[in-house]
Amino acid sequence: MRSEGAAISRTRAERAEAALDTLTAAPAAPDRLHRVLEQALVFAGAAFAGVYTPGDDPAQLRLAESAGLPRTLYGIRDGYPAAGGSPVAEAHRGGHPVWLSPEQLAGCPEARRTPSPDFSLAALPLGPAGSGCLLAVSEHPGGFGADDRACLELVARAIAVPRAPEPPGEGGEMAPDAFSLAMDSGRVEVGDGILRLFGIARDDFDGRVETLLALTVPEDLPALMSVVEADHMSIGERELEFRVLQPSGPPKWLRLRGRLLPGGEGRSARLVGTVADASTLRSDVTDVARVQRLAASLATATTVKDVGKAVVAALRGPLKADRLALAELENDRLVVTVLDPPEPEAWPEVWRTEWRTEWPDAPVRAMPTLATALREGRSRIWPAGSPLEPALAEVGPGGLAVLPLPAGGRMAGACLIGWDRPHHFSPDERALLTACAGLAGQALLRAHAFDAEHELVGMLQRTLLPRRLPRLPGAVAVARYLPTTAGLEVGGDWYDVIPLADNHVALVIGDVQGHNAGAATLMGQMRTALRAYAVEGHAPDVVVAHANRLLLDMETDLFATCAYVDVDMEEGTAWCVRAGHLQPVLRHPDGTAEILRAEGGPPLGVLERAEFPMTPLRLLPGTVIALTTDGLVESPDVDIDVGMDRLAAQLATADPEHLGLVADALLGGAHRGDDVALLLMRYDGMAVRPLRESWTVWRLPEAVRHARRFTRRTLRTWGVSPETVEAALLVVSELVTNALVHTDGQIRLDLSLVNHRLRLAVADSSPRSPVKPTSIGWEATGGRGILLVEAVSAAWGTVPVSGGKQVWADLVPNG
């Protein structure tokens, strides 16, 4: 047995060495390093392989090339400090390999979020110390075995220290089929051959990538955008086919091959590659190429539906199959995720009797042959005429392939491929189906976990943010929130719109440090605290100071930034308080926009005795206030000051009449590497301004009489009817008397007339609310005041105000 194992090991190592010798002996090609890395996936079973080398800055090791699944699945970064403690740095400095098992990785940052518990890592030096290293990741239980390690060492020896290739158009004339796209500006240089394929004359091309994208078939645009957007690409090569519209006739198929070159000092990242007419290329694709294409598609598939679409594109057309179904296995039921074709009539009757939502839900017990295949865990093929139960026979009367999809030690589901006419299954085709089944099973398991976690994250985020914004007097507010696409962590950004007394409104936006459940929980606590302090009637600086003290008392390591704007809708004035947050942006009615230079205090939770100064604002009708978090204006390629200037410029050119469209347009350029919160409010001014007067009640023997006289004079000036005045005097007498008798400190009487509704309010320093007696005897000398107030008022109540309370009563004047 030992000799047989050694023979297998030698055979695999020899095959890897032969493949690498062939690649390195061939003339140098732009994709040679990528193809060498692919051998680590084929022969060593790696899920990811990447090369790190010193860049322009020797203190940093940068990712020069990668292959396999996206690095973000494993928490792997684009760069590591050469002097740091990462496995990459250790292999680079020491010149010796580093092998880390799942147990050793349990406490490392790279293991914080992985799709498999069997996450192993290897870092191998590229020659002597200081030359860089090869980083590989495995999801196999037990990590890299002896055979895998031998193959990885061969791959590491075959890798030459790469030099960043020069983008087309930067060292010579652009080839006819080449292009170079700047990822930050969207400017693209293209060869004359590409312009001919798109039907554009050189003089008519404006150099914008949007001009080319506008000529593509709309259905192909999402796939194309996944290539031309940097957020969706890892360093490496991508290939896809898409269609462009023609002046007459059917669309033309083109094939794009591209790779993302990372940016450096003074230059942005660029997407470079070629575009060719797909009809002139080879139509016969090898089985290895099909597996590679499926692996590339599944690497970017994040949902179960994405996995299904990738499998359909990779198998149904190339195999000339008539139907394909991809299903997840849930207990004893086959929950079909993707059907191609999607029409119910194309599928067996038993499937159509088990409809659930948009796809059928078929019981496995109705298909014992399928149940056996799933239990055995190996692909099965039945040629035409095989005796099968109707539920399967009708799927492929000319031939049926059932591919169990193994993943993580269990069956994730099954893929069924059927032909109507007799189909001959060659040995290569059988091997292709088996290889694709393993890839699809792993991708389906990852996507299912992604879908479940994404739904959980979304539900948590929706719970913590306002479900809807309130209707405001004299203003319109809209808000948007975009979670980050860099991972599944819930963000700490939040916003709130808080209606306050006397037609005041508080606009709040904030950001808690971090992207995890702790940050989200703290975000919910801070939002609730700020709302509670604001509703109590505190001044804006006091509200923020209270929140700062609360965060310090919570003894958390996290801090938060916040911007708080208290707007007086009646007067068109506002007070702004900042706690380490971005400045608000104002768009004035004349179309100009400015970044408010408001004083600010430190972030919340940093200093115990922090001061939060208030900055006054003057709002004219038509003014738009924009509050945002740094995810909208800052990215690795854009400085925050540049982003703020860009936001102000976009806001200046927007139409404030359609505030929702303005918010959507502002979010269109979001980097999505961080979550984004955006809050906009357009101040229109109140059509009818309430009438208000206030009176400070001094503790004198004649205090009640003075309060009554002030009330009578004010209400007569407002034209309130005599009957309502008499009722108001009774209410004022009772409320002021209660405050004088039962409280200490200052007392204030407020009168307001809003929309023919008169409000009488008395504020004092006691937090205790008056209690309405349940019963009063005939001999009682007190306790009837609140009953009298209730009898003559349309409504009454109490609200907390700055450590005390305000007792109010509403009257509806008759004229």
From TrEMBL:
Question: Which InterPro entries does the UniProt entry name for this protein?
Answer: Bact_Sigma-Reg (IPR052016), GAF (IPR003018), GAF-like_dom_sf (IPR029016), HATPase_C_sf (IPR036890), HATPase_dom (IPR003594), PAS (IPR000014), PAS-assoc_C (IPR000700), PAS-like_dom_sf (IPR035965)
Keyword presence, Hydrolase: yes
Gene3D superfamilies in UniProt: 3.30.450.40, Histidine kinase-like ATPase, C-terminal domain, PAS domain, PPM-type phosphatase domain
Which keywords annotate this record?
Hydrolase
Which Pfam family is an annotated match for this chain, by its short name? PAS_3
Per the record, the domain of life is Bacteria
- Domain PAC as annotated: residue spans: 238-290
Q: Which CDD domains match?
A: HATPase_RsbW-like, PAS
What name does UniProt use for this protein?
PAS/PAC sensor protein
